[in-house]
Amino acid sequence: MSAGQTAEGVPTIYHVAQRAGVSIATVSRVLNGHDQIRPATEERVLEAVRELGFVPNASAQGLSKGLKRIIGLVFANSWWEDDPTSVEENSLLFADELIRGAQLAADRHAYSVLLLSSGVTHRAHHAAFSEVFGKVDALVLLDRVVRQERVGPIAKRVPVVLLAGSGRSRLATTIRVDNAGGMQALAEHLVLVHNMKRTAFLGGLADSPDNEARFSAFRAAVTELGGSCESDEPWSADWTSSGAVAAVGRRLALRRRLPEVIVCANDQMAIGAMHALAMAGLSVPGDVAVVGFDDIPVARYLSPPLTTVRQPIRQLGAAAVESLVMRLQGHEPARDVVLPTELVVRGSCGCPATPGLGLGAEAPAGGKGR
Amino acid sequence: MSAGQTAEGVPTIYHVAQRAGVSIATVSRVLNGHDQIRPATEERVLEAVRELGFVPNASAQGLSKGLKRIIGLVFANSWWEDDPTSVEENSLLFADELIRGAQLAADRHAYSVLLLSSGVTHRAHHAAFSEVFGKVDALVLLDRVVRQERVGPIAKRVPVVLLAGSGRSRLATTIRVDNAGGMQALAEHLVLVHNMKRTAFLGGLADSPDNEARFSAFRAAVTELGGSCESDEPWSADWTSSGAVAAVGRRLALRRRLPEVIVCANDQMAIGAMHALAMAGLSVPGDVAVVGFDDIPVARYLSPPLTTVRQPIRQLGAAAVESLVMRLQGHEPARDVVLPTELVVRGSCGCPATPGLGLGAEAPAGGKGR
DNA sequence: TTGTAAGCGTTATCAC
DNA sequence: GTGATAACGCTTACAA
Fold first, then answer.
1. So what CATH class is B13-56?
2. With pLDDT > 70 as the criterion, what percentage of chain B qualifies?
3. Fewer CB atoms inside 10 A, N or C side of chain B?
4. Gap from B44 CA to D11 C1', Å
């Protein structure tokens, strides 16, 4: 059957062409902003488009142009797990901010963001992670969504950015935050300002590059400054608040002398740690100081307000997308990007909590109240 | 040029066919799980697919099948705003959980989730929200992403689910949570258990259906029970913690007798309210009780742990996608779905906080206040 | 059981 | 300036 006339469904370019009395080529040209089109013709076409409510079919465009204008954001499946007992609070806020950043950047370039999880299992049939390649032009892979050795083959097919990883992959562009710098600043603050020598590091999942980077950087820095860092068994959690509560509980059960400060690998765990200490009748920072990493929104509203290292998660997402769009446009972006982190001093480290009137959103840099 | 042989790019079905010594039709059949294929043939095809690392092009599939297997999730643009001063904490957690739920459900049906914002402005050229229709098979529209009158035309084109709205649209399926039920339970608890008669409602953005529903339900319930509800100017915020801090500050400045409890339209604001009260030297729940709505993860770790109404955000997202997939499969799902909410009693309302050991993930001992 | 060929809705290359 | 028409990669009758 000759093209055109889809019975009664969505209007196609043929309908527009017919209505405007031109060929589909002309319609396409108008829609794609080609010049050299007679104004009168253009107006007729646009009118027809409006009347019909025509919207180009992205599949057809993708097929024809070889570009889908879609970037995939791949999360580890555990992040999306449906297990109600393991709330995976870890990802909360992180994923959200990351997605936002990616969204924003994608929008700027007329791209869209497609969410994917690494462990696709929908059809028992032949489900495979690789199926998703077909839907996107490029991929953002989060830390540990695929094993190192699988990155190569993937990166060979589509442009790939590795996020929050160890930063040592020559197979794909890597974008991450400066964990080391943040921990260095934190260690200096604790040791030099508060004169704390006995510290403890409450880590997240052991196999996470972020966790590893934060821990080794902190330990190195604090040791360098003449302090020590306790970090064996009891101090191991899973990035979650409840995991931290349990970890601190284990440590307290040992009834050994406590460290002066507990450095948590993320804010969620700091919240759990503070909670556990409070329940044990210990005061923060009076008896033990607690600091975190991330600077999630609630951090400033905890009591005491949480001292933490802010990481630019949103920018991380945006940078990833920008990098990929760059690649898709034929440019060669930087191979390894490191975004800066920033120490945010509030009350939980022992510093006098900002006296703030409590009106307005008090930002560490001295926020203005709108 | 005859089809086949894409110079050196991504392998197509033609490459697979050639390699396996069969026609592309056969390859397609194997890939789509058709029966009546000679086992030997099937094996050869699968082998070729494996060797070439072939992945079907989703655009081509979409064009051919008329289904893209992509569902769009549309957020109001303000949620993604790049304005660093307005942190929009409101959406945090909510969006995240919602997305998760949608993701999970989509995965189950081999669909993917595409993120979109309502105010697309990438190319000054001819950017339009409608452009996104081309990329998806169906849409989930969040509360207020488009004005009422625009829903009709959209729903006419693609299946649409309205989320967290007022629930009164016969143009599209609506899915929301039982705000009224939750508020009813909350009011009963406050009045009947704590004998609180003087309440205040700290609302979010005034034009939000959720805010309106929560407020009117609470006021009606508390009034019915013989209590009163203060809710004029000072008690208005923007869903954010900082907005709540400011609102409570305004109310305190009035130096009038305070209500016995502040009922917040969401947990973020409850956190801000508690913070503002603490800074004013008031104790929660000793001087004033505070309750929230949502039950975000940190709620149980606040001191005192926050009493709140839990809403099944993740299920909300999942239900939306399930409904759309249903429609796409030709079934006719329910027009208006209301998901149940649940009162979660913790310490901030004045109830004795659960005396947990603090090791589990449970709502624990009365964080000895400070 | 497998191959041939006609679409699917755009874009882009030629001619005119 | 504009109109035919050939791709783009895949699915699916229709034949064989």
1. mainly alpha
2. 84
3. N
4. 20
- To the nearest whole Å, the CA of A224 is away from the closest chain B CA by 34
Within an 8 Å CB–CB cutoff, is residue B346 touching chain A?
no
List the CATH code of the domain at A70-177+314-339: 3.40.50.2300
pLDDT grade for B370, boundaries at 50, 70 and 90: very low
Mean pLDDT, range B132-143, rounded to an integer: 90
Q: Which residue has the tokens 């935050």?
A: A177
Segment A147-163 mean pLDDT = 84
Joined together, the tokens standing for residue B298 give 């940190």
Smallest CA–C1' distance to C11, residue: A64
Residues of chain A with CATH 1.10.260.40: 13-56
Q: Are B264 and B270 in contact (CB under 8 A)?
A: yes
Strand C bases contacted by the protein (CB, 7 Å): 1-13
The pTM score is 0.88
**Distance from CA(A23) to C1'(D1), angstroms, rounded:** 12
Q: Do A301 and B68 touch (CB under 8 A)?
A: no
Calpha distance B284→B191 (Å, rounded): 17
Segment of A122-131, B122-131, B220-229, B353-362 carrying the highest mean pLDDT: B220-229
- Nucleic chain C: which protein residues 45-74 of A have CB below 7 A from it? 54-57, 59-61, 63-65
> In A, which residues are within 8 Å of B61 by CB distance?
59, 134
Identify all chain B residues contacting A126, using CB atoms and an 8 Å cutoff: 31, 33
Architecture of the domain delimited by B179-311: 3-Layer(aba) Sandwich (3.40)
Structure-model confidence comparison of residues B333 and B235, the more confident one: B235
Half-sphere exposure of B5 (CA within 13 A, CB side): 3
CB A268 within 8 A of CB A204: no
Which segments of chain B belong to CATH 3.40.50.2300? 70-177+314-339, 179-311
Instruction: List the single residue in A97, A134, A241 with the smallest CB-CB distance to B297.
Output: A241
Residue A167 pLDDT class (50, 70, 90 cuts): low
**What is the signed CA dihedral for A358, A364, A366, A369, rounded to 10 degrees?**
-40
Q: Given A115, A281, A370, which is nearest B115 (Cβ)?
A: A115
Tens digit of each residue's pLDDT (9 = 90 or more) over B37-95: 999 999 999 999 999 999 999 999 999 999 999 999 998 765 555 444 444 455 556 78
Q: Could you tell me which of B169, B161, B61 has the C-alpha nearest to residue B106?
A: B161
Please count the other Cβ atoms lying within 10 Å of the Cβ belonging to residue A352: 8
- As a whole-number percent, the residues of chain A with pLDDT over 70 amount to 85
- Write down the residue that tokens 């931290």 correspond to: A244
Helices (H), chain A: 13-20, 24-31, 39-52, 58-65, 77-80, 94-108, 148-157, 179-188, 209-224, 241-253, 267-279, 313-328
Residue B39: what residue type?
P
pLDDT, one tens digit per residue, over A168-196 is 677 789 999 999 999 999 999 999 999 99
How does pLDDT run across B232-261, given as a tens digit for each residue? 989 999 888 999 999 999 999 999 999 999
The Cα B13–Cα B26 span in angstroms is: 10
